[in-house]
Design goal:
Elements (H helix, E strand, L loop, with lengths): L18 H34 L3 H13 L1
């Protein structure tokens, strides 16, 4: 006599990650955060320069004076 109940077993998939793949992920994350920090710093410096020179026109005037001497 056959058993009418069937047993379904899900196959467990095993994924292996290598150390170099994990190091690549960490490296990409570090580079991304570094680029974001540099971008924020440059924007703050631009705003500070604009404020200290008296506005956008003052900043452009100071820039042209710096380039031409």
């Amino acid at each position: 006599m056959k058993n009418s109940a069937t047993i379904n077993r899900a196959k467990a998939t095993v994924t292996t990650t290598t150390a170099s793949a994990e190091l690549n992920k960490i490296g990409a994350t570090v580079i991304t955060f570094s680029a974001a920090a540099i971008g924020c710093w440059s924007m703050v410096a631009l705003f500070a320069g604009t404020i200290s020179s008296g506005g956008p026109l003052g900043l452009l005037n100071a820039l042209s004076t710096t380039i031409t001497g």
